[in-house]
Amino acid sequence: MVRRYYGLPSLVALAAFEAAARHLSLTKAAEELNVTPGAISRQVRMLEEELGSPLFLRRHRAVELTREGETLNAALREGFERISSTFRQIRSFGGQASVTVGSTLAMAHLWLMPRMGGFWNHNPDIVVDHVISDHPRGLDRPDVDLRIRYGDGEWPDELSAKLYDDRIFPVASPAFAKAYPVSSISDLAQLQLLSVEGIDWTWTTWSEFLRDVGHPDRRVNVRRFNSYVIALQAARSGQGVALGWASLVEPLIEAGNLVQVTDAEIAAPQSYFVTWSARRPLSPQAVLLKDWLLSLGSLSSAQASRLPISLEQPARRRSPKTKGEHHELSGNRREN
To answer: Which helix or strand (DSSP H or E) is residue 152 part of?
Structure first.
C-alpha cells in the first residue's frame, strides 16, 4: 500500500472504510461512492492488512465495527467533518456566507419557514440552506451546521439547547368534527385515527395518547402514515383525526383548516432542540442563526418576523459545555 507524507494509507481506502462504517453496510457504501461492493470490501481488507487488525465483524448480510474499527471511524469522522467545514468556508470567500440547517419536513414546512423571513430580512448577506429528512439519521451529515430535532436532548457527538416544549391534542377538519362530535374519549377512540409511525419512534402514537388520557384500549381504527405533513393533509381533507402538535398545527387552527376536537391533551414527552456538532466550531453565521432560533422559543411566526438580530449585535447566550448540558430561555418555554 502506497504511503503518504503523513504516514497514512490510501485515502481511497480510508474513504471506503468511513462510508462502510457510517452505513454499517458495504452495499450502501458502494452505492454512495458509485463502486461495487467488492471494491469496498477490497479497500477495507487492505486497511485491515496494513493495521494487522480486523475493522469489521462480518455477519450474515451485515457488518459490525470492532473496537479498532470504532476507534478509526471516530478519528476519520472528526477529520472529514473538519475538512468539510474548512472547504465550505474557503468556498464562501468572496461570496455570500452560508449556513445549513436540517429538520424534518413538518418542522420546516409548519414551524421554520413561516419564521425564516425575520432572519432573512435582518441578515440578507447570509444564505441559509436547508436539508430536509424525516429519517432519524437523515440529518447526520457533515454539511449540516444546525439541526432542529425532537428528543431528549442527547445525541452522540452533539451539543444541544432546548428550543421549546410542546403539547399534543386531537385535530380534524371543521366538517369532520361537526359530522362526528366527540363528547368523551370513548367517542374519540371509535373514529378513524390518523397516525404517524414507522420512521421516528420518538413520536407519540395514538395508542400512547389514548393510554395517557385514560383509555388504554388498543382496539382502534388506525390509518398509518410515514409523513406528518401527509397525515395532516388527510385530516384537513376530512379523512379522520390526527394528533396535533401544538407548535405545528396552531397556524392551521388559526386559519380554520383544523379544529381541536376535544379538550383532552397531553404534554409532549420530549422536547424540540437545536443541536450542532461537538467536534467542530460553528461559524459566526451559524452561531447567529443558532441564537436567533433559540430566541424564538414559542413565539408566533408574526412575532418572530419582527425579532431583530444582526451580526454586529449577536444575542448573548451561554453555550452548553458538554453533550448532556442543556439550557432553556426564560419566558420562551411553552406552558403545558
So the answer is: none
